[in-house]
Design goal:
Organism: Oncorhynchus mykiss
GO molecular function: unfolded protein binding
Distance between the termini: 74 Å
InterPro entries: CS_dom, HSP20-like_chaperone, Shq1, SHQ1-like_CS, Shq1_C
Number of strands: 13
Strand content: 15-25%
Main location: cytoplasm
Order of helices and strands: EEEEEEHHHHHHHHHHHHHHHHEEEEEEE
Protein name: Protein SHQ1 homolog
Length: 504
């Protein structure tokens, strides 16, 4: 049997199904309608859908067939007039057999179930505490090591790269991931980022940012989405024919994830979407041959098989990688990507799914990157269709409210051309809370260091900051290279400082 191409829409009274069956006879159609169960048969096509609401067969249904286009259009009455059916664009989820839309564990902790037995209902729309306190890392025993050496969606895969040694170096940066624990991956990732950070590239983009300012003005496609009040805050997202075809091709899976795994799955999704938002902005919406490399390089999840325990960790990792690897290394692009990602999640799971489908296409068309589809993206495309609508919106709020005060941990020695001595620093307040930092040049030279950190604006009283942001003002009173700058960026109401000068 062939699963036909189909689309679903609705009005207050009817569910409208459009099914493409070009190679069939007009007189041979069979329909089955029973509550949320719908079946359609027209040799050689068969379509079975599990609907998000109930329909009835009461004589008001009507069907038409366009012979030239091969389109069968069916209007079926809703059991409750005026009811809105959610998720009609989630084609993979609709194709799931009845009874398989939930993937709760078959074995439950009795203490966890006791609340339900006492009459407390389980909350399907569980809200995560995105600001949860982090636990101090403890070394694992030998018996636990095998559990740590997993990766992929929900950390459910292992042994993949033992069979793909040749493709390994072109896809991820970690060597021998099947024998590398999560803590070792993180340590090696941080070491690699610190060693590859290039101060010359960073400063060049910092002071010569005309092209970057142009990229910051770019409006990605989700900027034009208008929230649909009927969809309870979710934006109306349309899918292309190619995207719909890909959704029909996905195989339905059930995902058994405990609370910790679900939390990590969401954090890794934020990491991937951040990388995608940066890539889309810096290419102004036109993917190129470097797009697969950029997305996977900026995502610690995809490049190092990283797992995170907080939103702060995700943002710090993403900020470090933006300043280390891509062509454009400017903190304003980090801020823009965070804002873009927050807008994507705010627009609902359909918007997130559209981004994931775009990533899937980019990786599918790149020879080594297809492995990442198998490990992560395909599962995310299927899983995101099954989750509740409230979680992405709540994540968007938490993403915007997360304080970015963690140190990026990047440090480099300035070249002798930037050296100075007997330096004095004065901070003069300017308009809009911007401060001018002046550095006076002495006769003798001494070593200096540039430490990249993030501080709240309240730190001005104790630490002279170098703001990273939209515009630069230079003190050129000496013949030396610029040693003073003022750069400011306000992100979600929080003034951010990325760099400060410290002196030896």
């Amino acid at each position: 049997m062939i699963t036909p191409a189909f689309e679903l829409s609705q009005d207050p009274t009817f569910l409208i199904l459009t099914i493409r069956v070009p190679y069939t006879r007009t007189s041979e159609f069979d329909l089955y309608i029973d509550g949320d169960d719908f079946k359609f048969y027209a040799k050689p096509y068969f379509l079975r859908l599990t609907l998000p609401g109930k329909i009835v067969e009461d004589g008001r249904e009507k069907a038409t067939f366009d012979i030239d286009k091969g389109l069968f259009t069916l209007h079926v009455p809703k059991e409750t007039a005026g009811e809105h059916f959610e998720g009609l664009q989630m084609l993979t989820s609709l194709l799931a057999p009845k009874g398989s839309r939930s993937a709760k564990p078959l074995v439950e902790d009795m203490e966890a179930c006791s609340g339900i037995l006492d009459g407390e209902e389980e909350d399907d729309e569980e809200e995560f505490d995105w600001q949860v306190e982090q636990e101090v890392y403890m070394d694992s025993s030998e018996e636990q090591l095998k559990e740590l050496q997993k990766y992929g969606f929900g950390s459910q895969r292992s042994g993949v790269f033992t069979r793909l040694q040749e493709e390994l170096s072109d896809v991820i940066d970690i060597q021998n991931p099947d024998r590398t624990t999560g803590s070792e991956r993180r340590r090696k990732r941080l070491d690699a980022e610190t060693s590859i950070f290039c101060p010359d590239h960073y400063l060049a983009d910092l002071f010569e940012d005309e092209e970057i300012q142009g990229l910051l003005k770019f409006r990605p496609w989700w900027s034009d989405l208008c929230p649909d009040s009927i969809r309870q805050g979710e934006a109306a997202v349309s899918f292309t024919d190619d995207e719909k075809e890909q959704l029909r091709k996905f195989t339905n899976h059930s995902y058994i994830l405990d609370k910790k795994s679900r939390f990590q799955v969401w954090l890794s999704l934020v990491d991937i979407i951040l990388a995608y938002c940066y890539e889309l902005r810096t290419t102004e919406g036109e993917h190129n041959v470097e797009s697969p490399w950029t997305i996977r390089k900026l995502s610690g999840t995809l490049c190092w098989l990283e797992t995170y325990s907080s939103l702060q960790e995700v943002l710090v990792s993403f900020g470090r990688r933006v300043l280390c690897y891509p062509l454009y290394r400017h903190f304003s692009l980090v801020s823009a990507a965070v804002q873009d990602a927050a807008r994507v999640f705010q627009s609902g799971k359909a918007c997130v799914l559209k981004c994931l489908l775009d990533i899937h296409t980019v990786f599918r068309e790149n020879e080594p990157a297809y492995i990442l589809n198998d490990l992560y993206i395909t599962d995310y495309c299927v899983w995101i269709q099954r989750i509740g609508a409230a979680v992405p919106v709540g994540l968007s709020v938490s993403l915007q409210q997360t304080k970015r005060t963690e140190s990026l941990g990047l440090e480099c020695s300035l070249s002798s051309a930037y050296a100075f001595s007997r330096s004095s620093i004065t901070v003069k307040p300017l308009e809009n809370s911007i401060s001018l930092i002046s550095v006076s040049q002495g006769d003798e030279t001494a070593g200096g260091h540039l430490r990249l950190s993030a501080f709240q604006s309240a730190s001005l009283s104790s630490l002279p900051p170098l703001y990273i942001g939209a515009k630069c003002q230079l003190d050129l009173s000496t013949s030396w290279l610029p040693l003073a700058a003022t750069l400011h960026r306000s992100l979600n109401g929080l003034d951010l400082v990325l760099a400060t000068f410290t002196y030896d």
